[in-house]
Amino acid sequence: MNNDLDAHNQPLAIKATGLVKRFGKHRAVDGIDLAIPQGTVYGFLGPNGAGKTTTMKMLATLLKPDEGSAQIMGHDLLKEPDAVRTCVSLTGQFASVDEDLNGIENLILIARLMGYPSRSAKKRAAELLDAFGLQDAAKRQVKKYSGGMRRRLDIAASMIVRPDLLFLDEPTTGLDPRSRNQIWDIVRALVTTGTTVLLTTQYLDEADQLADRIAVIDHGKIIAEGTSGELKASVGSGVLHVRLLDPSTRAQAQQLLSDALKTKVRLSSDSATLSAQLTGTKAASKALAALDANQIDVSEFSLGQPSLDEVFLTLTGKPAENETQKEGAKS
Amino acid sequence: MSEEQNMAKMRAALVEQVRPPRPNGIATSLTFAWRALLKIKYVPEQLLDVTFFPVMFTLMFTYLFGGALAGSTSEYLQFLIPGILVQTVIFTTVYTGVSLNDDVSKGTFDRFRSLPIWSPSPLVGALIADAVRYTIASIIVIVLGLILGFRPTGSILEIVASIVLVLIFAFSLSWIFTVIGLILQTSKAVMGISMTFLFPVTFASNIFVDPATMPGWLRAAVNANPVSMLTTAIRGLMGGRAAVAEIIWVLIASAVLILIFSPATMYLYRNKR
After folding, report:
1. Residue A43 scores a pLDDT above 90
2. Which of A240, B51, B103, B139 is deepest in the core (most CB within 10 A)?
3. How the protein sits in the membrane (chain A) (predicted)?
4. Domain A238-304 has CATH 3.40.50.2300
């Protein structure tokens, strides 16, 4: 296989140049370039309607790009779609399992389609259900699964034959924290086996936890790209929230924090709390120490990660728009 | 079980097994047919359209209109049963489009379309499963007819041939509904549009009445209707005197339907957003 190499001579899982997809006049994807090394996790971060799913669908051969070209695991996306399909797998945003069938039937279906003979298909399906903690739900209709179980089954279906490249479209949207952690563990286990993962997410936290590199996408364009560390450095390391025991000390606290952090301190609507954008976490402990030294009692404080909104605010100068209408119109 | 053990188990399940050889198009189509038939197990009411409706239509037409149309109900039965067979199976084809639309809107087809398989196989598989439903419907109509007093003079072979002919035509006609199913947004819309098309096509035929009493222009249209040709062909086969010309016309009509609508279906399927 003649794989493209990146700057460090790593073979690339995806190399894309100038991908464009138009829906009518709307440019859903507007010139996206990618170079994703094999064996890594790559995150698309952006609000609804930014073009994440559309880009993913093009890379998975489900949509034809209007412009641009791409190589997936060394295969040309446009000229060899079938070769591309043999090395990728897609877990879509809306569960791509069959709700009417039960868990094991869903996996047997995919196993048969991948060429497993009847008996080994059953064996493989049972093995994956077990590995994904779904063995007790094998005979239950997927309709009755929880969101997290459905997601796990969906990913298990993608793993019948482990793909070289897995597309995960918003794998944890709408899941509770425990299910979300389970999905994260699955992705981590997967990467150790050599599969490259491309995932889309609306949560900076998720991209931070999983992705080696992140592309921030807005209006069909990549507006920032880098490791999560690089992105955070560009937006500051987060927000310090402080709640005071005595609201009457807030004015003094605001002055002290502002001196210690050398930044603007905002007063919240709650009369006892204030918050400030941080450039580094060290400053936060100094600021809290300053409050303590002045006998201002803090009932609660937290160091929040910058949210997607803050990333967008910094990168684009405007908050992330949730273009749900556009997203709805194209599905 | 500890976290580590869980992770180890998962890694073991993920680590490469031998990839099985790629299955051919027939195997994958049959797998999709298996999927469609499995659904009957969970949603048995989807068989209502092939069981309840033919029984209702046969009884209604025989006893409400039979006497008026043909002098007696038993005489009308001999005329009606081949026609009701055609009508039942043709109405059943609508569900092909409805269930395809459901699949597409739920995202299940996104996965199928990204699999390394012969790409028409999800559609062909669904049509094979539908053929099973059409066969059930055909058998119900004929058995009910026999109970009510329908006495075909054709041989068993000719009756089987007539069912096969109906199946061929239904399979070809289904491709119209797959096109409709892929174009429209909701399965309700698919149902509505398809029925709006099917009612005139089946009633403006010789299924229920002999077109001899119709005005000339309508009679011409009715006689040119492939549904009329199919009905005449089936009446011929069941009556033991095969209408060869009609059979050939039905086969030609089927081929034309497939040639036009199956590429259209595949185009829409591949380019579906």
Report:
1. yes
2. A240
3. Peripheral membrane protein
4. no
